[in-house]
Amino acid sequence: MVDLLVKNANLPDGRSGVDVAIDGGRIVGIGPGIDAEAGRVIDATGRLVSPPFVDPHFHMDATLSLGIPRLNRSGTLLEGIALWGELKPLLTVEAVAERALRYCDLAVAQGLLAIRTHVDVCDDRLTAVEALLDVKRRIAPYIDLQLVAFPQDGLYRSAGAERNLLRALDMGVDVVGGIPHFERTMEDGARSVRRSCEIAAERGLPVDLHCDETDDPMSRHVETLAAETVRLGLQGRVVGSHLTSMHSMDNYYVSKLIPLIGEAGLHAVPNPLINITLQGRHDSYPKRRGMTRVPELMAAGVNVALGQDCCMDPWYSLGSGDMLEVAHMAVHVAPMTSRDGMRSLFDAVTVNSARALGLAGYGLEVGAHGDLVVLQARDPIEAIRTKATRLTVVRRGKVIAETPEKRPKLFLDGRPDAIDPAAYAPPLD
What we know:
By secondary structure, this protein is an alpha/beta fold. The protein folds into 2 domains: 2-50 and 363-424, Urease, subunit C, domain 1 (Roll), CATH 2.30.40; 53-357, Metal-dependent hydrolases (TIM Barrel). Helix content is 33%, strand content 20%. The chain has 13 helices and 16 strands. The chain has helices spanning 77-87, 93-109, 127-139, 161-171, 186-203, 221-231, 251-264, 272-278, 294-299, 323-333, 339-347, 351-357, 380-386; strands at residues 2-9, 18-23, 26-31, 38-43, 48-50, 53-58, 112-120, 144-150, 175-178, 207-211, 238-242, 267-269, 303-304, 372-375, 390-395, 398-402. Strands 6-7-8-9-10-11-12-13 form an 8-stranded parallel sheet, with helices on both faces. A 4-stranded mixed sheet has the order 3-2-1-4, with no helix packed on it. The radius of gyration is 22 Å and the shape is globular. GO terms for molecular function: cytosine deaminase activity; isoguanine deaminase activity; metal ion binding.
């Protein structure tokens, strides 16, 4: 007897006709024709069953704050930062927590069950830190939430930022953050990278820096981040987020930089929706996209994960908690429209992101947590193409969200009564 049995599933690795048995919150069997009594049986009917979606880069302290106290009229990164500075004095623990919890409801419905969020510590009250520590506790039964101590206004540029960062870590925040390109000078930026990594090494914590989120090809703090990672033995624990300056760097320098990133074991986290809307704002034509060099990084063996970054906040007025939307945008802007390229971008919002966050027990294998999503698609490419409906979301063997199948009705003479939008492309593989 098992708690849950999912039958007739297609898996992201191409296997089909697979059953997944979950008991006691763990996967206890995976393969064809599992014969077991179950408390609940879900027939996937040849649909894609995936591990949960993972967002490795988000700002939950600002989410759903669109229009408070005003809108970002220019749509630029710098106006967004300035607007966030206007909003911070208005924050309350209750308001931040309520907005975050509402976003987490949306995330669960989208099969997004692990999130790393940056939390601004350049507020002496540490209001957002207090709120999100409480949220982390409250959502633990259904979402794995990691918090990054993020000095939004600069570790050295903002008075008291380092002190507040250390206070946040003492309160239980999980990861050391930073924003070296926003410091007053390139030298201060490099110094902030070194200090952030030293704090992480001293405390045995991961590092996740907003790094080179700029169109300036001379912003090269990821080089320092790679060097400090090696110097301090932090390999595998360090994320370089955004890395948009690589979009504008000359190819010769990048031919040196990408191997350095690979040698250091850095994880790279671009944020397609935000990078292509905030970058290139000073260009006329041709306009730069701004997203970092995803296919080149992947080809070099760097773990690339895709983040959502923002949802209805001072920087981005759109967003829906949908990691397939993130992957869909990456397909177009990278561009990565080959079959292998699209599959790798599905991995970038699932297994790669889990690796960047160091999630234990993640995946579809015996012994892993009993967490999965049944999608209205046959394979990862179809899931990205249609931004597939999440039919069933399972956490530790329990169904925590369901969405009816999308099947529009038609009233056309001689045509079908209803269609499945996910079933129109012929299987090519």
